[in-house]
Design brief:
five-stranded parallel sheet, 18 strands, six-stranded antiparallel barrel, single chain, alpha/beta, L-fucose Isomerase, Chain A, domain 3, about 550 residues, Rossmann fold
Length: about 550
C-alpha cells in the first residue's frame, strides 16, 4: 500500500515562520509565557516594518495556557508541517530545552534565525546561547541576534541583512587562534607537563545521567574525550538517592553545623511548599556527602549532577551540594568504612547540569591552578544578562558593560565577598524546584578572573579563553540586578577584557562560562597561558578572546 505524502504549503515570499521552545515543566512555561508573548508582539512589529509577516508555526494551547513547544515529540510534529525551505525564526524570552526543536532545525533547509530579548527576567539569553551552541555542534548553519525592544539600529540592520542575504555577519575580530610558539616558555613547559601527566594517569568524569535539559552542546562523545586522557564513569542518579539514604542524620547535621559555624545564613520558614526548611537543607547535606562517597568509590576526578529532571521529583535541589563540592574549603566528608577524609583540602570539581564541556574545563583548571599554587575553587555560571554601568563618582570610575554571571547556587563560597560568612541560602523558586532546597547565594568578590568555555565544533574539541575582572557595584545596583534576574542565586559582576557585549553573544558557544580567580593581573595572565598550553597539548583547539598572544 502506497504511503501518501502530505503536501506542505510553502510560505509566501513575504512570510517568515516562528517557532519557540520552552521547559518540560508546565509551571515554568506558564510563568514565562507573558514575557514570551510580549516579545513576539515586538518582534512581529519589527518584521512588519521590513515588509514581512511573522507567522507562528504552532498555536497557543488553551489547555496548557502557553504557546511553547514543550517536548521533543511536539517539536517533531510541528516541524512535519513546516516547509523545509521556509525562512524560520526561533525566538525565546525564557529558558528552553533545545532538544525540543533541534531535530527539526537540523533537517531544515531554509535560513534560520535565532532571537532573544535582552532581558534578565527569565533566562532567555541563556536559552538562546544553549541552542546556538547545540546548532554549532550539530554543524547547522544559522544566524543569531538579540535586542532589548527590537527597535534599535543594531537589531534592525541585522534583521534587514538576514531577510536579504539569509545570514548575519558579526564582528569576531576579538578571536585569535592560539600561537603556541608565542606562549611564555615557563607556562608552555608547565602546561605541557600537566597534559602529559593527565594522559599518563587518565582521569574520570563521574556523570550522573547525561543530557540534562536537552543540552546537546554539553555532551562530549567518547571519541573526542578519550584522546585527552579523559573518560566517563556513567552513574545513575538513582544510585545517588540510594547513597543519600545511607547517610546518617548525624552526618548531615555535622555538615550543616560546619556551615553555620563559618557564618553562613539560612533563610528558614515553615511552609515547605514555598519556604526553605531545615529538613530540606539536611537532605542537601546528605546529597553532598553521598556524591563525595560515590566519587571516591569510582575514582572520579570530577562529578556532574543532572538534577533538574528526575531528581527534582525525588529530593531538594542539588545546588548547595554543588557549591560545596566546588570549594577548596568545604565540610569534611569521611568514608563510611575506613573513615578516611575524602578529597581532603581540595575541591571535588562539579560540573553543573552535567555540562561535560564545563567538566573538562574545571578539571584542567583544577590541575593548572594547583600547580601554580592558586586557589583551585572554580565554577560555571550562566551568561545571564548585563547592562552598561557608569559610576556617579562616589563608587570609583567604572564605565563599562558589566555582565550578570549567575548560576542556581553552585558557586563556591571562596568566590564570595567574606566567603561563607557572606553567603546565604534561600529557597529555590518553586516553579523550577518543587521540593525546595536552598541555594548557595553570595556576591562574587572583586578580583581578576580567567573565563573560558570548552565546546565541540566541526567534530573537534575547542576552547575559548579570555581575561576579565569581577567588579564591585553599589549594593542598590546589585539588588536591582538580582530583582531583574533571580534573587536567590549567586551573582558575579563581570567585565570582560577586550570583548564587547555583542562580540560575546555572537561568538560564545554555550549558555555556560567557567570562571576562576587569580590574585592579580600578572598571575591571571600566567594562569591563562598555562591552561592554554595544557589544553593545546591535550589536542584542544584554543582560541584567545580579547587577549594578546604571549600573555
Amino acid at each position: 500500500m502506497a504511503v501518501q505524502k502530505e503536501r506542505i504549503a510553502k510560505p509566501k515570499v513575504d512570510e517568515v515562520l516562528l517557532v519557540t521552545s520552552g521547559d518540560l515543566r508546565l509551571s515554568a512555561n506558564q510563568a514565562c509565557w507573558p514575557a514570551q508573548r510580549d516579545m513576539e508582539e515586538k518582534l512581529t512589529a519589527a518584521f512588519a516594518q521590513k515588509g514581512y509577516k511573522l507567522v507562528r508555526a504552532h498555536a497557543y494551547s488553551e489547555e496548557e495556557k502557553h504557546g511553547f513547544i514543550s517536548s521533543q515529540r511536539k517539536g517533531m510534529d510541528v516541524f512535519m508541517k513546516i516547509h523545509p525551505q521556509a525562512k524560520l525564526v526561533f525566538a525565546t524570552a525564557a529558558w528552553q530545552y533545545s532538544h525540543h526543536v533541534l531535530p527539526g532545525l537540523r533537517s531544515h533547509k531554509g535560513p534560520i534565525l535565532t532571537v532573544a530579548n535582552w532581558s534578565g527576567q527569565w533566562p532567555g539569553l541563556v536559552g538562546l546561547l544553549n541552542l546556538n551552541g547545540s546548532l554549532i555542534k550539530a554543524g547547522r548553519k544559522f544566524s543569531s541576534i538579540w535586542s532589548r525592544d527590537f527597535t534599535d539600529e543594531f537589531f534592525l540592520n541585522a534583521l534587514e541583512e538576514w531577510l536579504r542575504d539569509g545570514k548575519i555577519t558579526h564582528d569576531l575580530s576579538h578571536v585569535h587562534a592560539l600561537d603556541k610558539a608565542r606562549l611564555p616558555a615557563e607556562s608552555a613547559e608547565l602546561g605541557g607537563q600537566l597534559a602529559r601527566e593527565l594522559k599518563r594517569r587518565k582521569a574520570i568524569l563521574g556523570v550522573f545521567d547525561e543530557g540534562c535539559m536537552g543540552m546537546y552542546n554539553a555532551i562530549i562523545d567518547d571519541e573526542l574525550l578519550n584522546p585527552a586522557g579523559l573518560y566517563k564513569e556513567r552513574l545513575s542518579q538513582s544510585a545517588l538517592v540510594a547513597k543519600m539514604r545511607a547517610v546518617s542524620d548525624a552526618e548531615a547535621r555535622g555538615v550543616y553545623d560546619w556551615l553555620t559555624a563559618r557564618g553562613m545564613k539560612f533563610d528558614f520558614g515553615t511552609d515547605s511548599a514555598s519556604q526553605l526548611t531545615l529538613e530540606q537543607v539536611l537532605e542537601q547535606c546528605k546529597m553532598y556527602i553521598a556524591a563525595v562517597r560515590i566519587a571516591k568509590e569510582f575514582g572520579c576526578d570530577a562529578v556532574g549532577i543532572q538534577y533538574q529532571q528526575g531528581l527534582k521529583d525525588m529530593t531538594p535541589a542539588s545546588d548547595l551540594a554543588e557549591g560545596l563540592l566546588n570549594n577548596a574549603d568545604r565540610p569534611p566528608v569521611y568514608a563510611d568504612v575506613t573513615h578516611e577524609e575524602l578529597y581532603a583540602g581540595s575541591p571535588l570539581p562539579h560540573f553543573n547540569e552535567v555540562d561535560e564541556c564545563a567538566g573538562v574545563d574545571a578539571l584542567v583548571t583544577n590541575r593548572c591552578w594547583k600547580a601554580l599554587g592558586l586557589d583551585p575553587s572554580t565554577t560555571l555560571h550562566d551568561v545571564r544578562w548585563g547592562e552598561h554601568y557608569r559610576s556617579n563618582g562616589s563608587g570609583g570610575n567604572l564605565d563599562a558593560f558589566v555582565w550578570v554571571f549567575q548560576i542556581s547556587g553552585a558557586a563556591p563560597a571562596n568566590h564570595f565577598v567574606n566567603g561563607y560568612a557572606g553567603a546565604k541560602s534561600e529557597r529555590q523558586p518553586a516553579m523550577y524546584f518543587p521540593l525546595g532546597g536552598g541555594s548557595l547565594k553570595g556576591v562574587s568578590k572583586p578580583g581578576e578572573i580567567v573565563w573560558s568555555r570548552v565546546f565541540v565544533e566541526g567534530g573537534k574539541l575547542h576552547c575559548d579563553m579570555g581575561r576579565g575582572t569581577a567588579v564591585t557595584l553599589p549594593q542598590e545596583e546589585t539588588e536591582r540586578r538580582w530583582r531583574e534576574t533571580t534573587s536567590q542565586w549567586p551573582i558575579m559582576h563581570a567585565v570582560l577584557h577586550g570583548v564587547s557585549q555583542n562580540q560575546m553573544m555572537a561568538r560564545h558557544r554555550a549558555n555556560h562560562v567557567n570562571v576562576a580567580y587569580a590574585p592579580d593581573a600578572e598571575t591571571a595572565g600566567k594562569a591563562l597561558a598555562t591552561k592554554a598550553a595544557m589544553l593545546a597539548e591535550l589536542g584542544v583547539n584554543v582560541h584567545l578572546c580579547g587577549v594578546e598572544q604571549g600573555t
